[in-house]
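Reviewer 2 asked us to include a model.

Predict the structure of this chain.
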Amino acid sequence: MITIEELNEVLKHAKNRKSCGLDNLPMELWRFGENELKIQLLELFNKIIDKNQMPQEWKTEMVINIHKKGTKSKSENCREITLLSTAYKLFANKIKTD
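Predicted model (structure tokens):
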């Protein structure tokens, strides 16, 4: 099970000012939100671990192309980024550090 201290450690290293996923929840919401919100997030994480099942929404991602340079119509002048739920990113980072 994940403790509130472990969640706070993951939040401390989370990056601000990054794009949200389809849930449209910015990382700053989790980092600077009230303790009540962090406790709810912690309960969700521990429920996922207990039931060994992630929310279906976390399995959905959005891929977008970002123009780098040159002609916009050429695919080699773009790079893809994948937008994921910020809660999923936090959960994945916690699991990765274990």
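The beta strands are 62-67, 78-83. The mean pLDDT is 93. We have added this to the supplementary material.
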